[in-house]
Amino acid sequence: MGRRQGVGIGFLGLAALAAAPPPQPPELAIHVGHLIDPERGLVDHDRLVVLRDGKIASVGAWGGHERSDALDWSARWVLPGLIDMHTHVADGFGSTNDPAEPLKHSAEATILKGAEAARIMLHSGFTTVRDVGVYRGLSDVALRDAIAAGQVEGPRMIVAGGYITISGGGGAVTGAPKGTVIGPEFRIGEAHTPAEARRRVRLLIDGGADFIKLIASGAVLAIGSEPGALELTPAMQQAACNEAKARGRYCIAHAHGAEAIKVAIRAGARTIEHASLIDDEGLMLAKQRGVWLDMDIFNGDWIEQVGTREGWPAEYLRKNRDTTDVQRQGFAKAVKLGVKLTFGTDAAVYPFGLGARQFAYMTRFGMVPMQAIAAATSEAAKALGQEGKLGSVRPGAAGDLVAVDADPVADIAALRCISDVVQAGRLVHRADAAQRCDRP
Known about the structure:
Layout: H1 2-17, E1 27-37, E2 42-52, E3 55-61, E4 71-80, E5 82-87, H2 107-123, E6 126-131, H3 139-148, E7 156-159, H4 194-206, E8 212-215, H5 234-246, E9 251-255, H6 258-267, E10 271-274, H7 280-289, E11 292-294, H8 299-310, H9 314-337, H10 358-364, H11 369-375, H12 378-383, E12 401-404, E13 418-423, E14 426-430
Parallel strand pairs: 1-4, 5-6, 6-7, 8-9, 9-10, 10-11
Antiparallel strand pairs: 1-2, 2-3, 4-12, 12-13, 13-14
Helix pairs in contact: 1-2, 1-3, 2-3, 4-5, 5-6, 6-7, 8-9, 10-11
């Protein structure tokens, strides 16, 4: 198939260019000054953390167990590696003023751009990402596998493979000049009936997808698609979620509109992405069903400022204005009601590496800093079905840690300044003081 051939070529290109990964250290000991445990909501001081075989082997007091070979983080605040639950790393390119941007990049160029985006994400403290859809089908699978094999530097990736969407919907490439041929690799998940939705789910899972992404409503950054409109019918969403479950996977739903959110929750979606126009009924339904909301409340400001300056389509800007403030109000309501919330930013809408800016928005709209940290660590791990394995500092968890120079529990903005990153027990990033913070 042409689609798989394109992805395969990209993977081989990455493998050829990548250097052999460094050997896994048998053990890494770290003297931690302040260890943030989001599962317990506590900060422990003067700790010795030992990582072995890529996992946390032990956490204990430093006093009486001093080790001369320990990495010195005694002046730093340390927390589990961050998890961004809503990214588009594998697409590689960011949003532009061209709605048909995905068509301008070959399979090889796309995956190489994705590799650079992955490196940036890792170095900014995100050791795990959920990549929630690509336009060129299955390119995310190739990038995930290259990272897992040690051929590309990047975060642990959980990927969707593509989108279940209607033709011309929120997950389709729209806005191309009349007569443009959009190849099948860009339409891997298009469906119009429940039976088609089931077939597309099987195709994505057979291609390596870890979960299924439904485009339940229209989108902000798509021509001809309205965020408040229901796009996938209830029957299609139910069929897709049932098929995913039968194949040992789960579904999530891009859903801005109030009705689309409720349909997706009833169909069995595990997380609702964006949830911009959620109403009180939707909030209570999410709480009752134990569904996580993954609300990207930072990037509306980026779209307004940069999109206006760079001449993004007027339709994009109008829909962004219609959803930004109301989404933040919904987020604040969700916090008060105790609805489960994770950390998802829609990385690619804004430049990769700036995702930690969202933390300040989460505290501005109702969370305390420890809640925001948990949303990007222990709570995200629960939504991934990886409780205690990711986003945790307990023994047996993945050896993923990030260090910052100031206390993020006192000032969440400290997470914009990452000094060191350890992934799977290996030090993968150490920044000079001048390079620690993202751009102002």
